[in-house]
Amino acid sequence: MHHKTQVGIVGAGPAGLMLGHLLHLNGIDSVIVENRSREYVIDRVRAGVLEQGTVDLLHAMGVGARLRQEGLRHDGVFISFLEQRHHINFGELTGGKAITVYGQNEVVKDLIEARIATSRPLYFEADHVSVDALDSSSPVIRFRHGDVDHELQCDVIAGCDGFHGVCRPSVPAGVLTMYERVYPFGWLGILAEAAPSCDELVYTLHERGFALFSMRSPTITRLYLQVPPDEPIERWSDEAIWQEMLTRMATRDGWKPSVGRIVQKSVTPMRSFVATPMRYGRLFLAGDAAHIVPPTGAKGLNLAASDVLVLARALKAFYENGQTEWLDTYSDVCLRRVWKAQRFSWWMTSTLHRAPDESAFDHQRQIADLDYLTSSRAAMTSLAEQYVGLPAEVSFESAGL
Ligand code: FAD
Ligand code: PHB
Description:
Number of strands: 21
Distance between the termini: 34 Å
Radius of gyration: 21 Å
Helix content: 25-40%
Bound molecules: flavin-adenine dinucleotide, P-hydroxybenzoic acid
């Protein structure tokens, strides 16, 4: 089957679905091609923290109704070390900004519903997805859906297919420069049926390593633990997980996470990665397809959102008056924000984790870093403004909102 569209989008994660909706709001056609099932994409447990700007963007796109009702607004965060929690107040330090805890899978669910309501095409369970003719004026996406082979001719392809997708590897060798740092640890994450015992997130550096207290709802706690990167999850019984969580997180004021039934557990490795430029010919990479951050700064999903806002602005100008300038600057505009988020995520990660090869000096320096952070208003302000999200590179209006 041969068909045509304006923008072919590979991947129905947050980047692909948000881009599809931004294009729809500007009257631009798109087809989204996803290799997993709808259920798989919705059930995948991942990010939880939305920056102020991401929340504002979802509202401006008209997909924020459930987020407004169910999202948990947090005006600060705790940093814990030497068994003491220290509060960083975002509202006070940033002039009223906040973050919102709302699961990535809920964002994806809302965006899929919005897409289906537009009646624009979204193929789940597409097999053998490939992209071709990227340096021509009509690049192609090929895939098999059910028993039918599809060839989709596009003006532009948006590679929103995540770190392990097909778009980035389809760029000819030598075109992209890759920057990478792989960390010698990973996160064991759990979802537990337990009411969160604190209203805000708690990032902990303990002698035995990093731990993070987060949540998903008034009845579900989300917790993470630093473990070796290739740690088999089977090695951790539920009892062992709780014992380690409580050992690392409990503070001298008597605070600790509430224990409950563990309903999901997995281990994620951690890396920093950037591919530049985020474009080859008529292929534009967005989100995890172009860059990965370690989750400690909670930036990955938010970077996906800011990339597609910049791309939507460029595509609107391209279709409205044939302007290519913003397509040409897409990568540079995105990368300014991406590198700042990389630096922040690397800093949060290296300050809060224990590296296997660290020296006693390194550990004392980490403690001093955290002591300075939690006692200096200037340092807290710096963390707060980065955590709630640096200002967007482009306005919502320029993307047709
Ligand atoms: P993805 O979500 O990876 O979506 C890509 C889509 O493309 C997927 O649906 C995939 O199935 C599809 N795809 C892949 N290959 C193909 C193919 N060949 N053909 C068609 N489709 C394909 N970020 C935050 O901002 N805050 C957080 O708190 C946070 N916490 C995290 C915690 C964990 C444990 C993890 C793992 C990540 C976390 N992140 C966080 C990162 C965040 O989840 C990602 O940055 C985000 O998912 C990126 O969105 P994306 O749309 O670019 O990519
Ligand atoms: C989460 O709630 O999943 C979460 C929160 C903060 C992070 C990473 C993940 O830094």
